[in-house]
Amino acid sequence: MTAQHTQGRANVVFSEISRMHGSAAVSIGDQPVSSWMPAADARRLAACWNACSSAETYDLEQYGQFWTNGFVMNAALASERDAALKSLTAARALLQEAADTLGAHITGTGDNYDGTNIIPRILAFLKGGA
User: Fold this and answer.
1) Contacts of 13 (CB under 8 A, 6+ apart)
2) Which residues span the domain enclosing 103?
3) Is 25 a domain residue?
């Protein structure tokens, strides 16, 4: 089990001197979480922290975020995509079975064609059943 990470929004912190040198730090609430760094890096670090605030650390470590056609897909979207792909694969298999059954019936190569079995299964699948 891993320790809980610090909760809250990350903020970019400047001091009078750091502004003159183009540097900044990152804090979460009043707790500093970085040393001084280039301001652009501090802004990016804070933006990434805030963008991932609702993600589980484990998911970020395992799946991270990746680019798909210019779209950032996080682990939750990847999970939804995987579920949709699984459903489409099942639909394809069921429709292929229906086509094979019908094709066997039409060509006379099928044994005891029973369309009463496949049609209700297709309808149940389309209604959200198995």
Assistant:
1) 24, 25, 26, 27, 32, 42
2) 77-126
3) yes
pTM of the full structure? 0.45
How many CB atoms sit inside 10 A of residue 1's CB?
A: 3
Residues 6+ apart with CB under 8 A from 85: none
Residue 118 belongs to some domain of the structure: yes
| Residue 92 CB burial class (10 angstroms; 0-12, 13-18, ≥19) | exposed
* Residue 33 counted as domain residue: yes
Task: Provide CB contacts within 8 A for 45, sequence distance 6+.
Answer: 10, 26, 34, 37
Digitized pLDDT (tens) for each residue of the chain, 130 residues in all: 456 777 788 899 988 888 888 999 999 988 888 889 999 999 988 988 888 777 777 766 666 555 444 455 666 677 788 888 898 888 888 888 888 777 776 666 655 555 567 777 777 777 776 5
Report DSSP letters for 60-80, one per residue. Answer: HHHT--EEETTEEE-HHHHHH
Which parts of the chain fold into alpha helices (H)? Answer: 16-21, 39-51, 57-62, 75-107, 115-126
Contact 10, 28 (CB under 8 A): yes
